[in-house]
Amino acid sequence: MVERLLRAGHDVVVYARREEIRRRLEAKGSAMADSVADLARGSDVLISCLFSDAQLRETGIGSDGFIANAKPGAVFVSHTTGTLSTLEALRDSSPSAPVILDAPVSGTVENIDAGTLTVLIGGPSDAVAAVTPILAAYADPVVATGALGSALALKLINNLLFAANAQLLGAATQLGAQLGVEPDVLLATLQVCSARSHAAEQAQRVGGMDRFAELAGPFLRKDIAAMTDGDVSLNISGCINACGHHHVGNIGILGVDKDGSEWYQVTLGGEQSSGATGAHLGRVIGPSFSAEEMPDVMSKVIDTFVEHRHEGERFIETYNRIGITPFKERVYASRQPAHA
Prior knowledge:
Blueprint: H1 2-7, E1 13-14, H2 19-28, E2 31-32, H3 36-41, E3 45-48, H4 53-60, E4 75-78, H5 84-92, E5 99-102, E6 105-106, H6 109-114, E7 117-122, H7 125-135, E8 139-146, H8 150-178, H9 183-190, H10 198-206, H11 209-229, E9 234-237, E10 251-258, E11 261-268, E12 283-284, E13 289-290, H12 294-308, H13 315-322, H14 325-331
Parallel strand pairs: 1-2, 3-4, 4-5, 7-8, 9-10
Antiparallel strand pairs: 6-7, 10-11, 11-12, 11-13
């Protein structure tokens, strides 16, 4: 990212803990800051690409953090796939906090090198517009998703679906081995058949499922934990037996087969545990959706949550306060469903 920003003609200042990274980036033309605070004091746009919420809090909060030391009018772009509550904690940690944008990324190092990383970005539209030309040095597309938190929600949903796909791919690989099919032949064949997927493509690219699990596993486990422990839970079942407990997710998705096509039933308002009253079952929002419709449906559900959410509220708290109607009206506003 730093190298592409430099090649695009931007003035770049970097704070890096490891000396070998500092030397390499300095040789490429980047200026180096001695601390996070020094970096913040001299930057109009702060961009972080940290692994976890814990690292964001460690470097951002406190008298020596980048939030308290940010320039007036600065914008902070967080590429971490984490939780909205952490970004709110950063914002609330200082009366002079910069404008904060959630901007999780999707892609690989190869995408960064080619300038084709996908960046989802949420927050005030004027700040999003201001930083988009900068992010374009390494990202295409840059997708504006709405209010602060909307990009994180969409990225976590994407990663949860990707993790489910990866689990299916692992099961398919095991089945193939039982039937005498070599794993590399299976992965190569899937890329030219109707079951082609990004998970299978990446597993083939890196050398098989074991290597894929080694590389992707830590990120997927972190992101699923963020979905489980954060502001919204999303449960997915692939069969009518509710093996994924979709009925007790804040957002539940049940995949069903109708006339040989994939359709999805969406429930809202489920909760795993509600104190002495136990679990609450989600309500079906309405007629089911095709596979092609689901990304837009999920986006509208999350947008409705973000727009109606009071500060600090989790999804289930917003849902219990406003009910299912605003979600249903948003999702079905321009759709005449053909399936019940």
